[in-house]
Amino acid sequence: MKMGTSNIFKDQSLFVTKRLVPWILCTLLLLPITLLHLYFYPIFFSPEIQLPPSSPITITSHSSLSLPPTSTASSEKDTAHETPCDYSNGEWIKDTIGPLYNATTCNTIKESEKCIPNGRPDTGYLYWKWKPSPCHLPRFEPHTFLQLIRNKHIAFVGDSLARNQLESLLCMLATVSATNLTYGDGEENKFRRWHFPSHNANFSLYWSPFLVQGVERNQNKGPSCNTMHLDHVNERWAKDIDQMDMIVISFGHWFLLPSVYIEGGSVLGSLNCPELNHTEMDFYDPLRKVLRTSLNSIIERKAAKGSGIDVIVKTFSPDHFEGDWNKGGTCSKTRPYREEEKKLEGMDAEIRRIQIEEMENAKAKANEFGGFRLEALDVTKLALLRPDGHPGPYMNPFPFANGVQEHVQNDCVHWCLPGPIDTWSEILLDMIKSWKEKPRSKE
Ligand SMILES: *[C@@H]1O[C@H](CO)[C@@H](O)[C@H](O)[C@H]1NC(C)=O
Ligand SMILES: *[C@@H]1O[C@H](CO)[C@@H](O)[C@H](O)[C@H]1NC(C)=O
Ligand SMILES: *[C@@H]1O[C@H](CO)[C@@H](O)[C@H](O)[C@H]1NC(C)=O
Ligand SMILES: *[C@@H]1O[C@H](CO)[C@@H](O)[C@H](O)[C@H]1NC(C)=O
């Protein structure tokens, strides 16, 4: 992975993107082009993030839903919701139990997320649980999850957070049932599949950070801007829609990078690619359009076959870089924010709002056909409150082994495994359980 080769630049890129984008968009033409180029040239969310652990890392129809869940070793009572719980707001409270798995018991964890084996000294971040304001979120029950997805194929589609969440989920499921990788696309591992023979359930991972067709910019050579065709779904995943029973979509971070947007065969504009002379625009409208294109494709293709599907849109998961952008941002906090300490606002709130709106629009459209369930897995707030859950410098093994370096590469975007991202699947499970009580309607 290349993240470490351009430590400062990456942080510049994220800093500028996060805090200065609105300003940049207004005053772009007044800024020296070279400066912008320097800011945005290096890439953080590079495809290299998808490298498998074995790669050298050198840098610093849902009838089965009626199955009853068995009770497990969970010490907590399962709450059946009359109305679905709103999980999105709440607070992190102390928890003594800790995670279901560790890096020894799970072999699907990417090296850069093995925080404890990589030398992270504090473990307090493992002992918190999410308490939604209106209800209680039960602990993850791997047996129940597997029973509910018996004979199903669940696809995780999108960016590296999709991979991060699926790896977390697989670690939790693997505590009760053996799984094997049944497909891997070789070195980059952008596309993978796992099979649980115990329940004939499959999980697949599809790398598609734009969701639509596009060309990823290249850090070293080739285009310095991403290209996205806003009205053409990426067939690399969409061609398999027929085989999928549930799709979990994760995207957002790649939209902060310099990009050219194409629609109807012509260029709409671009973000931070001044050398191309296109109309400058922000990424919010493109972000909305790629989700609309993707959800429309799913609905149209399934409806054409007379079948439905479950679609989960996982909302944006904010990063936690802090510190001077030109001195290497870090995320050094070791405990969650309290609810009142950190507001959901600005870009994080806007991306989330667009994702939920488009999901709701698609849901209305899908209701004309019946057989569809669309929901948001709204993790933005609970992720925002966890600055302590990222690998930080422990994305690399023992980053301080040679003393404290001036610049140590930090990952303040992805999540340690185990870690707070495990909660996302607790919520996912509770959503699927509530569906069981309210089967998909065929109106
Ligand atoms: C990982 O979990 C296993 C099983 O619970 C336990 O035996 C082992 O000691 C744990 N390893 C670490 C490093 O915590
Ligand atoms: C899961 O994948 C296996 C091949 O690994 C296949 O035989 C099986 O039919 C698939 N099951 C589902 C539900 O997709
Ligand atoms: C996984 O693969 C290994 C080696 O092919 C095999 O021995 C094992 O039975 C498989 N396990 C499962 C759960 O399919
Ligand atoms: C952008 O515009 C400048 C000035 O008009 C011109 O010199 C340059 O060739 C243009 N670049 C592209 C890619 O069209």
UniProtKB/TrEMBL annotation:
Keyword NAD: no
Membrane topology of the entry: Single-pass membrane protein
InterPro entries assigned to the protein according to its UniProt record, in alphabetical order: TBL, TBL_C, TBL_N
GO annotations of cellular component type: Golgi apparatus; membrane
Location within or outside the cell: Membrane
Residue ranges constituting the Trichome birefringence-like N-terminal domain according to the UniProt record: 84-136
Domain of life: Eukaryota
Alphabetically ordered keywords of this record: Membrane, Signal-anchor, Transmembrane, Transmembrane helix
A family per Pfam: PMR5N
Keyword Secreted appears in the UniProt entry: no
Transmembrane segments: 20-41
Single annotated GO MF: O-acetyltransferase activity
Domain Trichome birefringence-like C-terminal: 137-431
Family to which the UniProt record says this protein belongs: Belongs to the PC-esterase family. TBL subfamily.
PANTHER family: PMR5_CAS1P GDSL_SGNH-LIKE ACYL-ESTERASE FAMILY PROTEIN, PROTEIN TRICHOME BIREFRINGENCE-LIKE 9-RELATED
Protein name: Trichome birefringence-like N-terminal domain-containing protein
Source organism of this protein record: Lupinus luteus (European yellow lupine)
